[in-house]
Amino acid sequence: MMKKNIFLIGAVACLISQAGLQAQSQKSRPNIIYIMSDDHAYQAISAYGYGLNNTPHIDKLAEKGMLFNRAFVTNSICGPSRAVMLTGKYSHINGFIDNHSTFDNKQQTVATILHNEGYQTAVIGKWHLISDPVGFDYWNVVPGQGEYYNPDFIENGVRKKVNGYVTNITTDFAINWLDKRDKDKPFFMVYQQKAPHRNWMPEEKYYHLFDSTQFPVPANYFDDYKTRTRAAYQQEMEIATHMHFGYDLKVPVDSVLEKKTGPGPSLQGSLNRLTPEQRKKWDDAYNPIIEQFNKAHLSEKDLAIWKYQRYMKDYLRCVQSVDDNVGRLMDYLKQNGLEENTIVIYTSDQGFYLGEHGWFDKRWMYEESFRTPLIIKWPGVTNKKSTSNQMVMNLDFAETILDMAGVKIPADMQGKSFAPVLKGKQKGVFRDAVYYHFYENQEHKVAKQIGVRTERYKLIWFNENNEWELYDLEKDKHEMNNVYDQPAYKKVQEMMMKKLKEKKEQYKDPVALNDPSKKV
Q1: 213/129 Cα distance (integer angstroms)
Q2: Which of 201, 300, 413, 513 lies deepest, with the highest CB count within 10 Å?
Q3: pLDDT value of residue 518
Q4: How far is it between the farthest Cα atoms of the chain?
């Protein structure tokens, strides 16, 4: 009998010990917060050195982490970038090729994998994948693009209106979830801001930020697209020509100049969401702008510059609230003893044009939209300010997150972990080229395109036009001079054609490459 009792006591002690080790192991695994803002240009993060604005809280992540100068996307548009990040697969594999797609939420994602490995998971803020989030213990997302003021949120399937400013509310929900989570498990939180997506409605405390600022107009703001193909001429995303007075610039649609661009989307639905108190503050801020503009009678060139200034001010005002809320979230981690065991990733769903080539929006394979901001703070690994010029992609995010969590990366994912880059242990070049495929030619009339970028060169094929562009990024960093078919670049062109075909085959893209000699 005594032997039996000793055996039972030993077995129980063993189980308790195993449970304790498992709990200890769970707690030692890093927490991971993935922050994605919408349309946040790297030029609008002060750590990148463009001098447009000041983002102290995002900069602090860079001061204690790694800033990537060459992070790229596979498909420069909101929904597809999110699908690529979740799956680690190109759009043609995960099925979400454009913003009119619906995400297959039954497929494997980084969230489902981490959830199955014992992580608590949550997605809060913008979702934009149509189907409900799967693989998350908790989800609370805005429908579609969301609204800036008094937005609707869908919390685990229940839709409700929430009073306040969306950037602050998203952080409120994130902190609330962190407070209520199971403290004995590691967490993976996807925290995605709607801002600074169009139509750029700032938080009221920032209505007058930048009032006295005149932003420098980009050198190629009045780009004539000389040497470029039809795609550059046929787009509809020029600030001077296509930006709407009412919706984008907050000048009413009855403006005498609105007829030139057409009425465009209506701002009224968003304004109708404001409370009387909010509407009064809005009118107090914007009515003087309207009055001054109507009295100015600007020339065509001056009007183009005025539009640029109006756009930049509201866009950067929205960014300021994003930065404030990164600070709020980081303060919470510090105050609750989570700072040293939480990896923080800051990025955007792609880059964005801030007047370069005269444009706003994204979609192109040109650098400003192809390249995205990426800053990663990994305590114990990236403890001091560092930068990387290695070419990484959002295709690699899922794999890197799994690697950082100590979880096996599925063989069918198409990217690869750049954790060795973060650890300073990368031997040689991480990636010799990056491959791009944009599918949507609807809003803004940006032509469908496929391309490849190496360290120095970029080849773009506008496949619906069967026209090509080639850039020498060392000599032409602003991509103003298309050197395709120039004799001096014959060997480069052949090399890039070969590289494009290699990458297309590597990523199993079924698109057919046409004979470049045949024009349409």
Answers
A1: 37
A2: 201
A3: 58
A4: 101
Q: Answer whether 352's CB lies under 8 Å from 39's CB.
A: yes
Residue 438 pairs with which residues in a beta bridge?
Answer: 449
| Neighbouring residues of 518: CB distance < 8 A, sequence distance ≥ 6 | 466
Token reading at 48: 């990148």
Intervals of the chain under pLDDT 50 = 2, 6-7, 11-24, 520
Number of neighbouring beta carbons within 10 Å of residue 280: 11
By the 10 Å C-beta count (0-12 exposed, 13-18 middle, 19+ buried), 426 is classed as middle
Q: What is the pLDDT of residue 264?
A: 73
Question: Which residues fall within 8 angstroms of residue 493, CB to CB, at 6 or more apart?
Answer: 459, 470, 484, 485
pLDDT in tens, 139-152: 999 999 999 999 99
pLDDT of res. 23: 43
CA 310 to chain centre: 23
Q: What pLDDT is stored for residue 266 in this prediction?
A: 87
Instruction: Please tell me what DSSP assigns to residue 448.
Output: P
Q: Which of 468, 451, 473, 480 is nearest to 356 (CA)?
A: 480
d(CA 408, CA 263): 52
DSSP codes, 68-79: ES-EE-SS-SHH
Query: Residue 163 to residues 93, 152, 157, 274, 335: CA-CA distances in angstroms?
Result: 39, 9, 19, 9, 27
The structure tokens listed for 410 are: 């599925």
Instruction: Note the pLDDT of residue 18.
Output: 47
Q: Please write down the HEC assignment for all residues of 391-416.
A: CEEHHHHHHHHHHHCCCCCCCCCCCC
Question: Is the sign of the CA dihedral 70, 76, 79, 80 positive or negative?
Answer: negative
Q: E strand or H helix at 370, and its extent?
A: helix 367-370
Strand 467-472 and strand 457-462: the pairing is antiparallel
Query: Hey, what amino acid is at 507?
Result: Y
Which pLDDT value is given to residue 8?
A: 52
Tokens of 374: 């990426």
State the Cα–Cα distance between residues 500 and 513, nearest whole angstrom.
9
Instruction: Show the tokens assigned to 130.
Output: 């149509």
Q: Is 84 helix (H, G, I), strand (E, B) or coil?
A: helix
Q: What is the model's pLDDT at position 434? A: 98
Beta strands in 86-227 (DSSP E): 120-126, 138-142, 152-155, 158-161, 187-192
Question: What is the pLDDT, as a whole number, of residue 470?
Answer: 98
Domains in the chain, start-ordered, CATH in brackets?
Answer: 30-200+317-428 (3.40.720.10), 438-506 (3.30.1120)
Asked if residues 235 and 444 have their Cβ atoms less than 8 Å apart, the reply is: yes
**Contact by Cβ (8 Å): 152, 166:** no
